[in-house]
Amino acid sequence: MPWLRDKWRQLQRDWEQQRFAHAHCFVQQPGLGSAVLLEQLCQLLLCSNSRQRACGSCKSCLLYKAGTHPDYLVIRSEDGKAIGVDSIRRLIVAQQTKAHQSGSKVVRVEDADRMTTEAANALLKTLEEPQPDTYILVAAERPSLLLPTLLSRLQRHQLTSLTEAQIGQWLEQELGRSLSAEEAAQISFYRDQPLTLLNRINQPESNSAATIPSLSEATATLAEAWLGHGPWPSPSKTDVELWLQASEYVLMELIRSTRGVAEPTTAVAQLHEQLKQANWDSETLQRQLQACYALRRQLLEQSGLNHSLLLENLWSAWRAR
């Protein structure tokens, strides 16, 4: 994945020159391979032999590959649930314990934007008292949902999206052939997810059998519904997270388009023009985006809620304007 090279070289250089910060935040971008980058980094930090790339053969590397490294802890959301303070307490204990392999200790917090406020405050306190040779790698799909005080103590990393031409060129290299017209037409929907598009091209039978749309498909459907060109979705318990994510994505695309910092997809561009006529400006869109974030936090921290109904109520506010 050529788009990972610059970020990897930056991380590699900071580690080699002993300028690597003790706490980082990586934006979760699965369609761009952010998890691959994070795996490589964790292995490098734990390797006993090299400061350029994990050797793969020392005891520490072998323990990492086996999933049994005693100085490596991963905390993540289970089944989409909130990450509670007890999980962060495990992190605190881990970083206070002496390294078993006499090297670095690495704690990786996935889905960090799903932490409860209590958990986030506990992590903040931990960052305020860094331990030597201990590295905390936080990954969040929506870093803006993290406490501002927490985010300010993390060195942030985000992968750069590719142009459609770059995606097309990479796909043809991976596939060893030219793209069909239908495949090329899908690129505009997958500008931030080239890996997802490659998988869909390689496994068309599994895509046709899927009942849950991709994020790009959900985003397009939502934009078309808002334009009045199609019905509004009926989210279910199994896909409400997807539709909430698509809602956030549509609003972010509209905000970027309003500010002139990105070229939107066709449906979003049409929606932008329609909303301009209805006097929707960047501030109005930003308020709606904050409402999405508030709903996400509410769904994480409160049980017994009707997720689908709350999301449909959010959409009704869009239609009412």
Automatic annotation (TrEMBL):
It comes from the Bacteria. One of its GO terms (cellular component) is DNA polymerase III complex. It catalyses: DNA(n) + a 2'-deoxyribonucleoside 5'-triphosphate = DNA(n+1) + diphosphate. GO terms for molecular function: DNA binding; DNA-directed DNA polymerase activity. Keywords: DNA replication, DNA-directed DNA polymerase, Nucleotidyltransferase, Transferase. It holds the Pfam family DNApol3-delta_C. Residues 250-318 form the DNA polymerase III delta subunit C-terminal domain. It comes from Pseudidiomarina taiwanensis. This is DNA polymerase III subunit delta'. GO terms for biological process: DNA-templated DNA replication. Its EC number is 2.7.7.7. Gene3D superfamilies: 1.20.272.10, P-loop containing nucleotide triphosphate hydrolases.
